[in-house]
Amino acid sequence: QVQLVESGGGLVQAGGSLRLSCAASGSIFSIRTMGWYRQAPGKQRELVAGILSGGVTPYADSVKGRFTISRDNAKNTVYLQMNSLKPEDTAVYYCNADLAVTYNSGSRGYWGQGTQVTVSS
Fold first, then answer.
1. Above 90 in pLDDT, residue 54?
2. C-beta separation of 79 from 21 below 8 A
């Protein structure tokens, strides 16, 4: 059983910072990619930032220069440092990992339960 557990969300004033963490645990053979998505009320879930194979880190245009994604492979953990937060960053943030549970199982995507980020103006 694989679990992704997020932490670090909360309420912050505009201009403030938060750091989200997501730890993957369980029967994991390898993790190919990890990333963060968000979903605001009435909107579709969107990619915020990811760490792909080879270390490529795509970001949504709206967060470039303000958010930084990083990963600790030894801990199977991905982080999202969010600075200069804006009210429009308010959303539920979800962790995603594309991983394999055995050497020959192929990889598939797993989701965390989500953590609320609220930025007040």
1. no
2. yes
